[in-house]
Amino acid sequence: MADSPSDSTALVPPRLEALSVTKRFGALVALDDVSLTLEPGSFHALLGENGAGKSTLVKCIMGYYRADAGRFLLDGEPHRVASPRDAHGLGIGMVYQHFTLVPNMSVAENLLLSRSQLPSVVKWRAEQQAMEAFLETMPFSVDLSAPVAALSAGEKQKLEILKQLYLDSRILIFDEPTSVLTPGEADEILGLLRRMTQANELSVLMITHKLREVSAYAERVTVLRQGRVSGTGLAAELSPTDLTQMMVGTTTLPKQTEREQHGDRPVRLKLSELSAEDDKGHRALAGVSLEVCGGEIVGIAGVSGNGQREMTEVLAGQREPSGGAVAVHGAPYRATRSEMRRHKVYCLPEEPLRNACVARMTISENLAFRSFDVSPFSVAGLLINRGAVRAAAVGLIDQFRIRTPSPDARVETLSGGNVQRMVLARELSHEVEVLIAVNPCFGLDIAAIGEIRSRITEVRNRGAAVLLVSEDLDELFELSDRILVMFGGMINFETNIGDADRATIGRYMAGHSEVAVHD
Fold it and tell me: Whole-model pTM above 0.85?
């Protein structure tokens, strides 16, 4: 790893080849004889269903995992990559889904911390001059003196890229790089990366599930399915139908459920001037008021970190509000277990493995969290009928197509998509009148996305009120009846879906406009 920026910005990135890579985790073959070539100066997209092996492959490239078989070559020379330090030393860097920045430090301090070794005494004048000289060679810049906490999501993503370039990385691997960006920020970042690859300054390998981004920015595509390469080619020559077939083995995906038209329905969920603090005691939710009627999906758009998490945690009973009120069916609601059961409120939380499951417990046990203390799963309210719990789990595993060898397998053995299916099965197998869904399709493959969105729409069509919080505008436009935008812990824009405009919503997501409501 480089200890300071150098003049290597003019160097052409090397050709990276992963040849016949195999990786096993016990009996599971995560990668089976996978080969991929990243040409110098190319923008290469890596696609596949959740659990297809994408993350495993890039973790082998980065040295987080050691492949059981196969080789890695740079410009034809074999290299052993035993750790991320080895990968960085070879000029390979990775930008992750979530930012790896220190919020309370400046941009310059974060750049300095990215180096493998730090001097015992930092000579800030010299470091500042070196960083300024480095930024002059970059096609974009971030204020070195700015605290990271004050940066927009797009600026933070730029800083993550700058960190890697500061370390002389010439091959960058991205894992869902636009998941926390506004549409404008996403196009700006991907456009910058594309221009850098076209100038032979950089090679990019991007994991994504957004086919629009593949068509607009990628040069080549490799698709994995069940741990093997199912297809590869030029992005310009592959249609969305071609890519879908490579990913799921068929061009026939589950038909999307259409939103049924409803007349006037009662308000099922109402927030009145709701406020809450974040984990540090700072105001995160600043007087949010909204209503969701039965048979309606209200979508909440916004860049992550604008109060959405705190709002949904209050509704799920995971955070105490500091002010305001919540009502369900007109009655005060404090998100206790008994109230959630009585009012038929169910949740699909963000990061379900962390927020909605016990990873070391079995799938059967996790599926029973909502009902283990009622008949037929409980005997006299004291003993658990494990036979009934397991039998119910078998039915849900089949109905929701959860891929697992057994209902007795631990949840931590499931892929992310199957964890999401399991939580979906648990929450939607009951009569639902209010559903809180947070980024329900984040990081999932195209087939799983279609299935989950259809099930959410079905719940809405049966008369439930759905509050959908998502950072994916495509998802919000597909599912929502109304879209509200959150910025700075407040609702700053509202529109019916028929009047919704992506560019306008993007501006409000970035906080560039005043409060407005469109009828």
Answer: no
